[in-house]
Amino acid sequence: MSTTLYDKIFQAHIVDEIGDDALLYIDRHLIHEVTSPQAFDGLVQKGRKVRRPDLTFATMDHSISTRSLAIDACGPANKLQLQTLADNCAANGIELFPVGHQKQGIVHVMGPELGLIKPGMTVVCGDSHTATHGAFGALAFGIGTSQVEHVFATQTLKQSKAKCMKVEVTGPRPLGVTAKDIILAIIGKIGHAGATGCVIEYCGDTIEGLSMEERMTVCNMSIEAGAKAGLIAPDQKTFDYLEGREYAPKGADWDAAVAYWKTLKSDADANFDIVVELAAKDIAPQVTWGTNPGQVIGVNQPIPAPENFSDPIDRDSAVKALKYMDLKAGQKLSDLTVNHVFIGSCTNGRIEDMRAAAEIAKQGKVANHVTAIVVPGSVAVKAQAEAEQLDKVFLEAGFEWRLPGCSMCLGMNDDILGQGDRCASTSNRNFEGRQGRGARTHLVSPAMAAAAALAGHFADTRDFVGND
Amino acid sequence: MSNQTTPATTGISVHTGHVAPLNQANVDTDQIIPKQFLTSVTKSGYGKHLFHDWRYLDLHEQEPNPDFVLNKPEHQGASILLTRENFGCGSSREHAPWSLDDYGFKVVIATSFADIFYGNCINNSLLPVKLESSEIDTLFEAVAQDPACQVIVDLPQQEVRFNDQVIAFDIAPHHKNNLIKGLDAIGQTLELDSQITAFEEKQPAWKY
C-alpha cells in the first residue's frame, strides 16, 4: 500500500498498539526551563526516573536576559526557574546548555545546528514550535508538561494517527519573497485553524529549492496553521547540512544512516486527506494585520474590511482585530508608523536571517522614533554573525545587538513592549498582548523588519533589493 | 441528579453547573494565561491570573474589568466555560488548563479545540466537549435568557442536557475511559516496559 512520509515515520516508531492509538517511541526529547519543572516534580512524587537521559537535551532560552549572562538578571522568579532546570538536569544526568555555554540557544535553533535532529526521528519538546524540526523529515511536535513527564518516564507517547495534508508550492520564487512570506501566505490561505488535526507535508519545487534554514522557518509555523507537525522530505541538502555536525553519525554509520534517510519520502501515489496548492509567483512579502497569524496580506494590499469576510466568525474576528490593532479598513501598510522592530526567534533567528536583515540594514539608519533589536537564535549564530561583521552593520545602522534567547517573541524576560506600541516582528505569533499588554505585533520576514526599521513604517523590501 | 461533580474516584463522571459564555473564536493560550505567569515552577495558583488581560483593567489585578464575562455577577461560580472554535490555540503551555481548573472550571464546551490544548485538558481531568456550531448557538441563547441555567454534562452518556434539550457529543473511547477512571497514564505505559525495551534493542546505534 502506498504511504506518506508521515505514515512511514509513525509506523517505524510503534512500540505497541492500543485500540486506535499507538504507543510511539520518542527518539529525541528537547527541554527548556518553562515547561519542564512540573514534569520533573511529577517524577519525584511517584519515585520515577528519566528513562533515557542520553536522548534528552536541555537549554535555557525563554526566561533569560538578552543583555546579561547572569541568571538573576530578570528577577527572582526567572532565576528560580533557570536554577530549577539546572538542578533537575544535574540530578537526572541530562546534558544542559546553560546561559553562557557555547552550545546554548533557542531550543529549535540549538538542536538542528548541533546535528541532534535527524531524518526519520520522532522529536518532542514542551514547546509548540517543535514543528521546526520537521524540516529534516523528522516527525516533531509540541507537547504539554504531562506528556513531558510521560516521555521522561517511558521515552514514549500515546498518539492517535493524524490526518495528512499536502501543501504543494510550485514555481520560481519571486525576488524579495522569503520562506517567512511563503509560510505566512500558506497560513493566510488555509486559515489559523486550517490544519487542525493534521500533519502537513510541504512539497513542490519551491519548497525543494529552499535552504535547510528556510525549510525550518516554514515548518516552524505549522502550528500557526493549527497543524500538529510539518514535514519536508529529506534530500541531498538535508544530508549536506548534517554531515560533520557534532551529533551526526560518522564513518560507516553515516553511510548506513544516509541509506535509510533516502527511503524517507511519500510514495508518488500516496493518498493525502487534504491537498492545498500555491503558486510561488502569487506570493508577495507578507505582513499580518490582525491578532492571529492567518490575518495576513501582501505588503501592497490594503487593510481588509470586515464586511468582505463571508464567514461570520471571520468577520467578527476582523472587527475585534482592527480595534485592537487600531487599524481601519482600506489603510495602506506604508502609512503605519512602527516604533519597535524585533529580529530574532525560533522562526527567524538563524544566520541566514541575520544576513538578510543586515543586507537591508546596511542601506540606511534606523528611523529616530524606532527601537530595533536583533537577537541571534544561539551562541553559534551570534559568533558566526560576528565573524561576518554583521553585528557592526547592525550597530552602525542603529540596531541593538543582543545575546541569544527567545526574547521579545513572547517577552518572558524584560524585552517587552508597552501599551500601544507597534512592532514589526520576525516572530511567529501576533496574538493580543503576546509581546506586551496592549502592544500591536505585525509578523514579517527579517528583511521586511529591517526595512520597517529604516523607513519607520512598513516598506516593500523589493524597493531595497532592486531587480539586479 | 447530582449538584456537583460525582466523585467516581478521582475521575469525572456527571457534572452539573452553570455556564460562563465567552463568545469569541480563536481564544489563544496567551489570553488564557499570559507569559508573565509562566515563571512559576508549580502547577497551582494560576486561577487568579486566568484571562488576565481581559479580566483586569490594570497590571496588578486590582481593578476588574466589569465588561468581562467572569466579572459579571450572574456568572460568578460558573464551572462550565462555553466558547467557540479553535479554543486553546497557540503555545503548548499546560498552564492553560491548570489555570482554568484552578479557577474552578470542570468543563470547556467549544466548537473545536487546538490539538495540544485538547490533549492537555484530558491529562488534567478538565473535560473538553466539542459540539456543532448550531448547538453552541443554542447553548449561548439559553444562557443569555437565563444565566443561572443549570447544565448537566454527562460523560458516561456523552450528553449535554439543559432545559428540555439533550445534545450528544463525541469523545474518543480511551479519553473517556481515562477521564472517568482518573487513570495514571504513565503507570499504564510503564506496564509495557518489556515492549519498550524490546523496541530499543532493535534500533541501530547511528539512529541517535
TrEMBL record, chain A:
Positions of the Aconitase/3-isopropylmalate dehydratase large subunit alpha/beta/alpha domain: 7-456
Note on how the cofactor is bound: Binds 1 [4Fe-4S] cluster per subunit.
Residues that bind [4Fe-4S] cluster: 346, 406, 409
Pathway this chain belongs to: Amino-acid biosynthesis; L-leucine biosynthesis; L-leucine from 3-methyl-2-oxobutanoate: step 2/4
Keywords associated with the record: 4Fe-4S, Amino-acid biosynthesis, Branched-chain amino acid biosynthesis, Iron, Iron-sulfur, Leucine biosynthesis, Lyase, Metal-binding
GO MF, any single term: 3-isopropylmalate dehydratase activity
Similarity comment text for this entry: Belongs to the aconitase/IPM isomerase family. LeuC type 1 subfamily.
Name the record gives this protein: 3-isopropylmalate dehydratase large subunit
Natural source organism: Paraglaciecola chathamensis
From TrEMBL, chain B:
This protein's GO CC annotations: 3-isopropylmalate dehydratase complex
InterPro entries: 3-IsopropMal_deHydase_ssu, Aconitase/3IPM_dehydase_swvl, AconitaseA/IPMdHydase_ssu_swvl, IPMI_Swivel, LeuD
GO biological process: L-leucine biosynthetic process
Keywords per UniProt: Amino-acid biosynthesis, Branched-chain amino acid biosynthesis, Leucine biosynthesis, Lyase
Catalytic reactions on record: (2R,3S)-3-isopropylmalate = (2S)-2-isopropylmalate
Protein origin, superkingdom: Bacteria
Pathway connected to this protein: Amino-acid biosynthesis; L-leucine biosynthesis; L-leucine from 3-methyl-2-oxobutanoate: step 2/4
E.C. designation(s): 4.2.1.33
Annotated ranges, domain Aconitase A/isopropylmalate dehydratase small subunit swivel: 16-132
GO molecular function ontology, one term from the record: 3-isopropylmalate dehydratase activity
Family (UniProt): Belongs to the LeuD family. LeuD type 1 subfamily.
Function: Catalyzes the isomerization between 2-isopropylmalate and 3-isopropylmalate, via the formation of 2-isopropylmaleate.
Subunit structure: Heterodimer of LeuC and LeuD.
HAMAP family: LeuD_type1 (MF_01031)
Annotated protein name in UniProt: 3-isopropylmalate dehydratase small subunit
Organism: Paraglaciecola chathamensis S18K6
Gene giving rise to this polypeptide: leuD
